[in-house]
Every structure is written in C-alpha cells, then in structure tokens.
Give the backbone structure.
Amino acid sequence: MTSRLVFLLFVACIGSAHAQFPSRPITIVVPIPPGGAPDIAARLIAQKLSENVGQPVVVENKTGANGNIANELVARSQPDGHTLGLLADSQITINPHLYKMPIDTLRDLTPVATVAANQFVLTVNPTLPVRTFPEFIEYARKANPPLAYASGGNGSQHHLTMEMLKRRAGINLLHVPFKGGAPAAAATVAGDTAAVWSGSSNAPQIKAGRLRPLAVSGAQRSQQYPELPTIAEFYPGFENSIWLGMFGPAGIPDAALSRLRAELRRVLENPDIKQKMNAAGGLDPYLTTPEEFAALIRRDYEKYATVVKDVGVKLD
C-alpha cells in the first residue's frame, strides 16, 4: 500500500468520523448542584438533544471554586465535541478578574452557542417607605447611615450590578456579602438588609410580597414583570443581563461544531423547551449567531474588568 493511499484512507476516516458526529454519548457539565435553574435547563436540553442526535446526553454536576472546576474540566477534555459545559457568564467574564485561573476562558474554551438569558430584579424589604425606583434612589441618597444591600458574595453579579448602579445614580450603599443569592435574599426578607438584586429563584418571595420589586436590570422590560421599568429608562445605557452558554474545549473540529450549533438551535426553538425553561427558572432561550456570541463575551469581559478594578473587589 502506497503512502499516498494510506494518507487518503486516513483523510476519509477522519471525514467519516466528523460526518457521523456524535459517535458516542455527549456529556454536559454543569457547575452547580442539581435543582437550580441552569441544571434544569441542561437536563431539558440534554433530553431533547439526545432524541435529535440519536446518542445519550448525560448531565454531570461538577461544583466548586465558583465554577472554575467545571471550567477547567471542559477546557481539558478531548476536543471532539463530546464534552460540553453549560456555563454562566460570570464564570467566563468575571472570574478571570478575581481568581488566579487554571485556564484562559477566552483562549481555552470554544463558545458553542448561547442558551438562555435572564435579568435581575431590584427588590427591597417591603417595610422600606418606597414603592418606585425613583423613590428608592431619592431615599437612598438621603439615608444616613447608608442603606445596606445584600449580595451573593464579593465579586458576584449581585455585588457588581449594585456597584454599577451606585455609580450611575450617585448614591452610597453599604455592601453586605453572603455566601450565595439565597441567604442574601433571606437577609432582605428579614429586614437585615434593605435591598438585593433578585434572580428568578426569588420569584416566590416577590409574588408573596416578602420582597418588593422596583426595576429590572436588562435592556428590555421583563416578560415576567412587564410593569417594572428597566434601569435604562432612568439611566440610559445601563444594562446587566445574565446569560448561560454552551462551551467546549478549544479545537473542536468545524464539522462537529456546526452540527452542535445546528442541533442546539433546533432544541432551543422548540416551544415546549421554551415553556419548560421559563417555568423552571424564568429563563428565556437566547439565540444568537456565533459572531454575536463572541462579541457578547468580549463586551462583558471588558465591562467586568473595568467594574472590578473600579470597585476594588477583594475576595473573602
């Protein structure tokens, strides 16, 4: 057998393998414990993706180090498209400015597709004598001592979003960090802190009146709270949304990457998936082009680099 024939057979085998992707089960790594909104979203996607591609799709929860363990696991996996990570924006665009990272999130991970988006709701303890966002800003401006706000920890999105608001509105607030969004919300419900940026998991407290919603952080009004204004309606350009994206290791072959993107779009365009994701955690499927996803990552990476520097965040 000539060397040219061997080479052609090798190329044919590689092409066949790419065309047959996936050739074995796909793993989706999730950086949080089972039960949270991202985990639920991953499992909904896994079930439908498995049906579409004809291979099992397994969800593995790899928690710890604020998501950096999951980041590294995905980045170090075989770059063939069979290991993916459903990762949060904070892991990709905030963590690099706070931690000595084991990987470079911009270089060592391949952005496959945006998956879901959400936004924060500015909420206050209902005993606070404010019912609108402008009333809150005016009350906070006059408060002495400053109002305290809760966050999910130093460097968390709760923290950085409020610091962004403080600077735009010219108000002073006292930061009280907690170990997670749930205890931060609980402190505000109890009246230990005056305000907190609430995520979708706090919807029951808002609905029950234990937290009073005032505004949302996204570029558009929320479908879940259409009566609430955006911060941008008062401070143009203010926007801080939350997104989840599917990532793989750097070096995934183009054929596998194209198949993954097409199949993920097909899953996210399914009305049943949209309804279940929204019901599970207020998440909305978020569809972008690869170019738009890359631009989003770069924008948020640079934005948080500036915010972290300006705030002078120090980790606990």
Q: What stands out?
A: The CA atoms of residues 180 and 311 lie 20 Å apart. Confidence is low (pLDDT under 50) at residues 6-18. The chain has two domains: 25-117+241-311, 121-233.
